[in-house]
Structures are given as structure tokens and as C-alpha cells.
């Protein structure tokens, strides 16, 4: 099976109450790929500038990620700077330098045009539509978006949603897109726009999946130390999509399992900056935390009264 991701490859400069890092490896496509590559073969499409170190490329290749769709063009790589207060659920953007990402137009290698599963990371919905026009219809198309596109490119976003099976959004984005305050009603309204399944990411409070006649809630893995939540949502999505690509299509059972895998992988990435923690994680580590999380949420029926 193959999983294609199209999104940003970037440098991140991050400040949290627990430390600071300058120009470390980041970007939605990278966080997604790192998680998914533990589970399946990943094809990555993105763009970087002349300042992108060769060691980063080799690092990605060493993680079972096919980077032949990574364009190298003149200019500087996308650079995001942000900070977090003790409320680690909310990032405060300090600076965004799009650089070569500003003119990014995805061009898929021929070998990338027949993926089993496709993840359209958080990029302009016009570009997401462009990718869909280049691929033979995958078994599953998933998409992520953000408030900027919901307000600024709503018409294009609504168009691309008609071709999407699974949508990832956070609770604020779900409310903004749907016009509904209640997230359950929001998910139902979004499903009428096209996606059969909506997964609403809620940070440290877990994630909620809504389908026709079916719902599932996955808690986040409880941690004592959280250093940097940057990329946690993309890592979660990588775990979900990597699981679906490895163990089967989207069914109620596989969806539940994949969401827990996503929660586990997200728990690793937030334990340090960039990929410093998750780079050493193995599939056996994931299976261990998966079992732990299942145990945390296991409970029996109430006893019946005579």
C-alpha cells in the first residue's frame, strides 16, 4: 500500500515555557510523514529552498519516506516562528515567511499518481484541487484545512470538500466552517458538504470522529511532560492515515484503531522539540502505549439490579 502526502516542508522556530529552538525541521508534510512512515510507505510532495540541508533530506529518506516529489528551487525555505504560553493548546504566531512556499504548485512524479490513500495537508484549497486532478482516484482522500482558508478561500474549499472522504479539523475550525457552536452538530453539518467522516481534533482533550450513525471519541495519551505541541495535529493525522493504509480501509473498527494510534504518536512528538523524541520511536513503542491507552479507557457495564 502507498500513502501520498502533499503539504509544507519548513523550518520552525519555537518558544515554549520549557525552552526554545531556532530553525528546526518542521512543516505539516514532515510531521505527517514521520508518523505515517512507522506504519507504511509514504510519498512526500513539497518544496524547499537552497538553504534546506542535505542532512534533513537524508533523514527523511532514512524514515521510509520517498522524497522524489520534494522540489528544490532557488530561494529560502518556508519558515514559521511561534510561541506557546502555559496553555499549550494555542500557538501564537510571531512570524511567517512563506519564501518558496508562496509560489508552490505541486507537481506529482508519475510514480506518485496512483496512491492507495491521499492526504492533502493544510495548504491552499486551490492547490488541493490541483493535486486531485493529477491523481487516479485513491481508495481514500483525506484533507486538513485551517481558519485562514475557511474564511479566505471558502468557495474553493467547499469545492474540494465534495471530493473528500475524511476531513481533519480542530473544534474552532469545525465551528467556523459549519456555523454551528456544538461540535457534534458541526460535524453533521460538515458531512453534508461532502466528507463521509469528520475527525475533530481537540488537543490535549483528544479527538472526536463523526460518521453516519456512528461516533467515537479517543482521549489524548496522558503525559506528565509536554514540551512542544507543534505538529501534534499533523502527527495525529499521520498515525490515522498510516494505520488505515497498513491495516485496511475506513471502517468503524479500523477508524477507532487508527485514531488511538494517532493519539499515541502525537503523544511522542510533544515530548520534545521538532522530531527529537519521535525519531527514536519504534512500532513496538507505539503498540505498548496503544495497549496502555486502551487500558486507561476500559470499563465494565454497571451491574444490573434485581
Q: Into how many domains do the coordinates divide? A: 1
> According to CATH, what is the topology?
UDP-N-acetylmuramoyl-L-alanine:D-glutamate ligase
Alpha carbon gyration radius: 18 Å
- For the termini, the CA-CA separation is 53 Å
Mean pLDDT: 95
Shape verdict:
globular
Provide the β-strand percentage band: 25-35%
Secondary-structure-based class equals alpha/beta
Taking pLDDT < 50 over at least 5 consecutive residues as the criterion, the unreliable ranges are: none
List how many beta strands DSSP finds: 13
The helical percent reads 25-40%
Order of strands in the sheet with most strands: 5-4-1-8-9-10-11-12-13
Along the chain, the helix and strand elements come as EEEHEHEEEEHEHHEHHEEEHHH
Keywords:
nine-stranded mixed beta sheet; 306 residues; 25% strand; alpha/beta; globular; four-stranded mixed beta sheet; UDP-N-acetylmuramoyl-L-alanine:D-glutamate ligase; 10 helices
Structure description:
The chain is α/β, with parallel strands linked by helices and 306 residues long. The chain has one domain (2-296): UDP-N-acetylmuramoyl-L-alanine:D-glutamate ligase, CATH 3.40.1190. The chain has 10 helices and 13 strands. A 9-stranded mixed sheet has the order 5-4-1-8-9-10-11-12-13, sandwiched between helices. β12 (207-211) and β13 form a beta hairpin. α3 runs parallel beside α5, α6 (171-178) crosses α7 and α9 crosses α10 (283-296). It is globular and about 75 Å long.
Amino acid at each position: 500500500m502507498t500513502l501520498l502526502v502533499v503539504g509544507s516542508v519548513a523550518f520552525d522556530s519555537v518558544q515554549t515555557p520549557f525552552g526554545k529552538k531556532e530553525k528546526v525541521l518542521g512543516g505539516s508534510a514532515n510531521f505527517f510523514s514521520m508518523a505515517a512512515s512507522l506504519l507504511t510507505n509514504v510519498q512526500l510532495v513539497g518544496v524547499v529552498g537552497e538553504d534546506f540541508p542535505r542532512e534533513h533530506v537524508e533523514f527523511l529518506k532514512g524514515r521510509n519516506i520517498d522524497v522524489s516529489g520534494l522540489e528544490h528551487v532557488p530561494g529560502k525555505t518556508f519558515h514559521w516562528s511561534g510561541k506557546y504560553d502555559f496553555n499549550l493548546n494555542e500557538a501564537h504566531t510571531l512570524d511567517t515567511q512563506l519564501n518558496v512556499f508562496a509560489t508552490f504548485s505541486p507537481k506529482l512524479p508519475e510514480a506518485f499518481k496512483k496512491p492507495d490513500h491521499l492526504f492533502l495537508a493544510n495548504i491552499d484549497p486551490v492547490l488541493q484541487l490541483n493535486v486531485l486532478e493529477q491523481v487516479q482516484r485513491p481508495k481514500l482522500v483525506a484533507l486538513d484545512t485551517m481558519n485562514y482558508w475557511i474564511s479566505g478561500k471558502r468557495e474553493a474549499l467547499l469545492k474540494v470538500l465534495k471530493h473528500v472522504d475524511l476531513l481533519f479539523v480542530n473544534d474552532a475550525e469545525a465551528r467556523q466552517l459549519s456555523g454551528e457552536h456544538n461540535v457534534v452538530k458541526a460535524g453533521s453539518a460538515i458531512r453534508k458538504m461532502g466528507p463521509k467522516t469528520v475527525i475533530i481534533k481537540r488537543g490535549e482533550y483528544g479527538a472526536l470522529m463523526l460518521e453516519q450513525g456512528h461516533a467515537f471519541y479517543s482521549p489524548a495519551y496522558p503525559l506528565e511532560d509536554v514540551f512542544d505541541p507543534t505538529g501534534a495535529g499533523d502527527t495525529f493525522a499521520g498515525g490515522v492515515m498510516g494505520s488505515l493504509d497498513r491495516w485496511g480501509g475506513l471502517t468503524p473498527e479500523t477508524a477507532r484503531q487508527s485514531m488511538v494510534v494517532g493519539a499515541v504518536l502525537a503523544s511522542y512528538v510533544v515530548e520534545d522539540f521538532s522530531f527529537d523524541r519521535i525519531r527514536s520511536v519504534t512500532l513496538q513503542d507505539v503498540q505498548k502505549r496503544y495497549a496502555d491507552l486502551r487500558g486507561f479507557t476500559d470499563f465494565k457495564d454497571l451491574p444490573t439490579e434485581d
